[in-house]
Predict the 3D structure of the following.
Amino acid sequence: MRYSYLSHLECPKCGERHAADRIQGLCGCGSPLLARYDLQALKQDGGSPTMWSGRPKGLWRYHELLPASSADHVLTLGEGGAPFLPTARLGQALGTPDLWIEEEGLNPTGTFKARGAAVGVARARELGIKRVALPTAGNAGGAWAAYGAAAGIEVGVAMPADAPDLTKRECTAYGAKVVLVNGLIGDAGKIVARSAKEDGWFDAATLKEPYRIEGKKTMGLEIFDAFAGDKAPDVVVYPCGGGVGLIGIWKAVQELQALGWWKGPAPRMVAVQSATCAPIVKAYEERAKESQVWQGADTIAAGIRIPKALGDFLVLRAIYESEGCAVAVPDSEIRGMMRQMASLEGVFACPEGAAAACGVQRLRAQGWIKPGERVLIVNTGNGLKYADLVDANPPLVPEGGKL
């Protein structure tokens, strides 16, 4: 069997095929490119889900459906293999007793961004790229900086000046070149695009290269793996900014269906956004194919403060194809949910993960999520990176005092 069954890159808008053995950005039509695999050859070579069962946990467990051409090109810091936690107490509070959390906060650099960085940087190194740059709300920059350091690739990061201070320090510690901009992630993206054009950086912004999504896709492969022989989730709830994780999970489901390995119904995909930055939700409610730029975007969940995602049409396509939905929640609920998840389940979720839980609560109240359905929340990061969002004013007791 081959190490990877990567075949080519394909434009999901115009259908044009592109070679996968050379450096690629966007399609000529301006669309992101998607990696395609020779699934028929994989089946003919004896591929089956059991080939994964004896391998160590981790992202590269699924290397046949990832783009690295050999084990020599694999780059890892221990990413992937996130636990799936049954959360009965939180589920009872939200009215969804069969509730699970995919805990991505245990990844290197504390977020699921490590998945995309591991594959994106590994593929960049394999193709001979020496310098990559990306705009970030914070966590993607930290992940790409870490994996760039591990790969010996120079990383440039542009981020909004009001991004979490911890992520600025994180990127700097990993040796990235960091610049700040007074604006949103789109303004940071303009700096990266200009630097790529004039100074030779490779633009690794969200979906401007085709391999970050392949790392995020492994969340879907792990969902399949974790619930093999049992009931897969009826609903997968994902906090949506750029939406690469949601697109990736749905891409994994479709590839597994094409292989004939995903036997049961596909999960309904849910995109959750903040009420103060909800372009995908607005587009969904209008049954549009793409979103419009959200004016005045502002939310405590920095990772989903994306006024317009490059891959919005792919997010919406996944929602429609899976018969899912998109829902917006207020920041006031997000902050409270961070504490509720931590106190009920011991999961200190990032604000984005808490937003997903708020989405479950809202959809259950509306009856969209039915009683008894299995629901999976993707908690995309560790709340310790956002500890300042939780108020803590413990009293000082005198010597000899009590709790």
